[in-house]
From TrEMBL:
This is RNA polymerase sigma factor. Keywords: Sigma factor, Transcription, Transcription regulation. Residues 21-87 form the RNA polymerase sigma-70 region domain. It comes from the Bacteria. PANTHER family: RNA POLYMERASE ECF-TYPE SIGMA FACTO (PTHR43133), RNA POLYMERASE SIGMA FACTOR (PTHR43133:SF51). It holds the Pfam family Sigma70_r4_2. Belongs to the sigma-70 factor family. ECF subfamily. InterPro entries: RNA_pol_sigma-70-like, RNA_pol_sigma-70_dom, RNA_pol_sigma70_r2, RNA_pol_sigma70_r4_t2, RNA_pol_sigma_r2, RNA_pol_sigma_r3/r4-like, WH-like_DNA-bd_sf. The keyword tRNA-binding does not apply. Residues 120-172 form the RNA polymerase sigma factor 70 region 4 type domain. GO terms for biological process: DNA-templated transcription initiation. One of its GO terms (molecular function) is DNA binding.
Amino acid sequence: MTDEELINEIKSGSQAAIEILIRRYYNEVYGFIYRRTQQQTLSYDLTQEVFVKMSKSISSFEGKSKFRSWLITIALNQVRDYMRTKKKDFINIESEWLEQTLTDTKDNVTYLYEKKEEAQEIRDALAQLPDFQSEAIILKYFHGYKYKEIAEITNSTESTVKSRIFQGLKKLSKIFRRENNEGRSKSGRI
């Protein structure tokens, strides 16, 4: 069934259709929230809140945008609200990810550590950007949204989204160049 068909079923009172939509989009919503918060437990909690809000407000969904975009807009607003109200408590918990990864797999620990380090560098760099730039970059490159969809989700224009992504990528490039130069000078290569 398509999203539209499921939404019509939900509007007719079908609980099963809600469950199908949740299963269809749970990983994407969770992944988006996790990339913004970098906290596993918090991401699960916020994801649950997103789907509660979706269930309560789905009857008002008019289909002017794709359901997927509408749902990610709810997730984006949920993260923004949380960060605004809990900014002082917002702590990056890196060891939680590493512990979970090591528990879940028997792969080479060195490889996992390198991948974790690489992912952390990207998260740290994204955290240095203004929220509006990092959100646009995450939606574009981690979730594959088109500029038009990102504009709908963030309530801005396509040209604004393109500008945010362009400027954000320029800043990320500078951040990575600066970090590479600092790494070389610390190791005595310059």
